[in-house]
Amino acid sequence: xxxxxxxxxxxxxxxxxxxxxxxxxxxxxxxxxxxxxxxxxxxxxxxxxxxxxxxxxxxxxxxxxxxxxxxxxxxxxxxxxxxxxxxxxxxxxxxxxxxxxxxxxxxxxxxxxxxxxxxxxxxxxxxx
Length: 128
Prior knowledge:
Blueprint (H helix, E strand, L loop, with lengths): L4 H4 L4 E5 L3 H13 L3 E5 L2 H10 L6 E5 L7 H10 L5 E6 L4 H9 L4 E4 L4 H9 L2
Parallel strand pairs: 1-2, 1-3, 3-4, 4-5
Helix pairs in contact: 3-4
């Protein structure tokens, strides 16, 4: 007997950081319906503080690049210093080639432009 795709799907603990509250709400509710747990934060410093509480507790870190207090690059550098083992996705409406290259040097798993298309994000997570 074959398992249903829902039974085979891995559920993830995701930390999502974006200063647009509406986008945090959309991501949290949409991915929550798929069984994922999503914790949302409005700035990089708050997100980093949460990860420091439980670095092994998150499978995926999704971040905007432009944020108050700490931008995406600053947070990713800290995650790498901590040896964060989860995947890292960056979504941003404005990343120039130099910044993109720095993310690649930091071994970010994925850099995608905004707007975030939820169906595409779901597909990426299904391949996780």
